Amino acid sequence: MSKKRIVVLYGGRADEHPISCISAASVLNAIDTDRFEPIPVGITKDGKWIVNGEDPRGWNLDSGVLPEVTITEGAKMVVLDVALGQDGFFAQNGNELESLGHVDAVFPVLHGPYGEDGTVQGLLEMMNVPYVGCGVLASAACMDKHYTKVLLAAAGIPVAPGITIDARDFDAASEFAANGPALLDQVKAAGLEYPLFVKPSRAGSSFGVTKVENAEDADALAAAVFEASKHDWRILIEQGINAREIECAVLCPKAGDKPQVSWPGEIVLDSRSTDADSFYDFDSKYMDSSASHVEVPANLPDELLAKVRETAAKAFVAVDGAGLSRVDTFVTADGEVMVNEINTMPGFTSISMYPKAWEATGIAYSDLITTLIEGVLR
């Protein structure tokens, strides 16, 4: 049986560029090379697609250095011919175009805007190329936390109380300080309780997220909104939920099939033993392996674990999910389950929740990759 040729896309223009690189390294190191021939295609931070760049298989975060796709000696630009579909992938060699051969599917291991938001998915749809993961609508809607909440609420799924603001009208020169009182008024009008979490609507990996603890602190609220505005003009101000953050991995290799759900897991912040106000920021997720650990299944009663799994599956269907997603929930002390967000291309690093949850549920990492790819092959 001939091997299926799979383009693995990584890097990209988003802030999550280095995490995509690490995720792709993990995928490329674990992919079943008896079944698949991976074709690594990197995307630089300014959007150039290349092959034959630095081998991502050697990337990791052990050194504390964030990897990046760059144009190295020997790298070739990738050119796409949309009309040729699965045969439309080429490498530019001087004035000549060299075919990369027939591509059976694409695995877009891309996080954040310009990769996880429906843009690449739309391109591949136009080329009629099979790809792993959610389609255009689910990718776009789940990338935007505001519209995720709109869809979930419409489906009767509880979400955290909050408001959405447009920062384009704010005065960046003053770092939004002059807008602090008006922001406080909006928070009060919405009846939001502190602490608040201020976050960009379309970003991931905790970029631009700030915790605001003190009521009446207009400067702190304005500074948090300014920080979030560096990543998106649409900003969420959400009421902090006194709850445990429980994550559930969803798997649906073939679009339209009934989604499978993993055992729910929990990120336990070890730093909370010394800092009760800590939260799961970028460094805790990726740069400091001692800051947290994963527990799967989460230490919850069986009926609550079942409720989280049911909610995750319902949320996945509500946004028209396909392939895979990680549904992040809040579980309160009285047993309420609400959805925080849905990640349509969750991290695939060695310490990421998605593969760990499926491993604990009975699907090994390499088998998970195989299942996802085979689900989209024609």
From TrEMBL:
One of its GO terms (cellular component) is cytosol. Signal peptide: none annotated. Residues 149-374 form the ATP-grasp domain. It catalyses: 2 D-alanine + ATP = D-alanyl-D-alanine + ADP + phosphate + H(+). It is found in: Cytoplasm. One of its GO terms (biological process) is cell wall organization. Cell wall formation. Its cofactor is Mg(2+); Mn(2+). PANTHER family: D-ALANINE--D-ALANINE LIGASE, D-ALANINE--D-ALANINE LIGASE A. Mg(2+) 1 binds at residues 328, 341. Keywords: ATP-binding, Cell shape, Cell wall biogenesis/degradation, Cytoplasm, Ligase, Magnesium, Manganese, Metal-binding, Nucleotide-binding, Peptidoglycan synthesis. Binds 2 magnesium or manganese ions per subunit. Its EC number is 6.3.2.4. ATP binds at residues 145, 197-199, 205-206, 238-245, 340-341. This is D-alanine--D-alanine ligase. GO terms for molecular function: ATP binding; D-alanine-D-alanine ligase activity; metal ion binding. Pathway: Cell wall biogenesis; peptidoglycan biosynthesis. InterPro entries: ATP-grasp, ATP_grasp_subdomain_1, D-Ala_lig_Van_CS, D_ala_D_ala, Dala_Dala_lig_C, Dala_Dala_lig_N, PreATP-grasp_dom_sf. The gene is ddl. Belongs to the D-alanine--D-alanine ligase family. It comes from the Bacteria. The lineage of its organism: Bacteria, Bacillati, Actinomycetota, Actinomycetes, Bifidobacteriales. Mg(2+) 2 binds at residues 341, 343. It holds the Pfam family Dala_Dala_lig_N. The active site is at 16, 205, 352. It comes from Bifidobacterium primatium.
